[in-house]
Amino acid sequence: MAVRIRLARGGTKKRPFYRIVAADSRSPRDGRFIEKLGTYNPLLPDDHPERVTLNEERIRHWLSVGAQYSDRVARFLDKAGIVPGATRLRGTGKRAQEIAARKRAEAEAAEA
After folding, report:
1. Which of 33, 51, 68, 72 could link 21 by a cystine bridge, Cβ 3.0 to 4.6 Å?
2. pTM of the prediction?
3. End-to-end Cα, the chain, rounded Å
């Protein structure tokens, strides 16, 4: 069973609230999950302590048994210091190509 740590949406229309859950990757987004690991409330200000709550012990457990995390959850884990450097740049668009070219140029400049 492939386990993912991801967001499950709740709340009402135009008032989102998310649970951070460990779920089988084949289960529906808002459906069945194995364990609730935290919450995310995007309506709260960025500096509010309850905007993102994480159960660090259980998240570390799921990561130790091979669970993968979604891109959005990776940002939360990186910011909380649970998985430093977890934030990934993704995409194949023009901006991603510019970033890749800039990194290549910096690497070449460092070698020279």
Report:
1. 33
2. 0.76
3. 47
Strands of the sheet with 68-69, listed across from one edge: 52-54, 35-40, 15-24, 3-12, 68-69
Tokens of 53: 């709550």
Cβ-Cβ contacts under 8 Å for 75 (sequence gap 6 or more): 86, 87
The 10s digit of each residue's pLDDT in 31-81 is: 899 999 999 999 999 999 999 999 999 999 999 999 999 988 999 998 998
- For residue 97, the enclosing domain spans 3-111
CATH code for the domain of 58: 3.30.1320.10
- What is the number of alpha carbons within 13 Å of residue 108 lying toward its C-beta? 6
